Amino acid sequence: MASSISLLHLYAQSWEHNDAWIVGNREGLTALRDALNRALETETTKPTACLAFAADGEGYACFIVPNDADWQSDRWMRLYLPYTDETAKDHRKDEDVLTPYQLLEEGEYKRLYDGLRETGVAAEKKLDSTPQP
Description:
By secondary structure, this protein is of the alpha+beta class. It has helices spanning 26-40, 74-77, 108-118, 121-124, and strands at 8-11, 21-24, 48-53, 59-64. The chain has four helices and four strands.
């Protein structure tokens, strides 16, 4: 029997050279694929999002933020590193790093959240009405 909820677990790298994992059911992986396709569907990449859930039923928005800058540019060199283990975490000062949220244009975060709410799925699954970056 098919699941009626988009399950998607994103496991970040603990440290450098460690594997990252995406685990999801068909609905969750399809939602992620569709969001990736939306980000790439035009000549200029654009941010997008999809709604997903962890196996405990907690919902969250998964944001796809394209960064087409040169890999040695400030937009990449200052981007907060994704490692989660304390020995590999990015310990630069907040003012020296960029978060993925800071790569979005003004108002983009709200627009993406509003887009999720408009799908009807977000309202049905009680998406947080006051998102915080």
